[in-house]
Amino acid sequence: MFSAFFLIILITLFSSACSGSDPAITDARWRLTAFRDTHSGVTGEYLGLAVLAVDDDGLDDLESISLISDEHELYWQASVEDWVVRQIRQQSWIVLEKLAVPDNVVPRGAYRIILRDYSGAQAESSFSVTASPELPESFPSLLPSEGTGGDIVLDTPRSESILMIRSEGGVLLGSFTLRKGLNSRISILANEQIRSQARELYLYEQGSAGRHSILAGPWSAEDYLFPD
User: Fold this and answer.
1) Nearest Cα to 172, choosing from 181, 184, 163?
2) DSSP-assigned letter for residue 103
3) What pLDDT, in 10s, does the model give residues 17-46?
4) CB of 141 within 8 A of CB of 203?
């Protein structure tokens, strides 16, 4: 009898130790980005998602994030290979930078987020995409730099854009604020990695609440950073 009682205690303790902690979603932010592909001429939009997740077993215990639109019968699932973790104000956010959608149009309405860990436990949250369905009338662009003394020329309906420089493999090498009009290349080309690896240029503009963020590109780095 004593042996059986002792065995029950051991099983209970072992089960408690192995049960782990359930994940939780404490915040979620979405971003709608309008894009123009300068190679294909395609214009559309995509959805980005950032999730502030808590798991006492650590973020390494998280297995997947699912995003579901029941109304439009859309489903995405991402694993650790598909997301990046960004530190924002000493908090670790799980970021899905680009969720592709049919016909490059993000359906408006309610979405559910389901976060799962390796034990099978899950947490759920929701949000609604409410931004205007109208895409921006114009996108920022780079203009030919002939006769400008080696400057980069930005054309945008706003006052500035962020120039993002990527390698052939898509790695972000650096980002710089460009003002509308002429911009010097000196500070950009001071970076050795950019000089040796830059291949494509993109322009990005952050959207305010209820408005699209904007992404345009690519442009050839050789044409705009190394025209000589």
Assistant:
1) 163
2) G
3) 445 678 889 999 999 999 999 999 999 999
4) yes
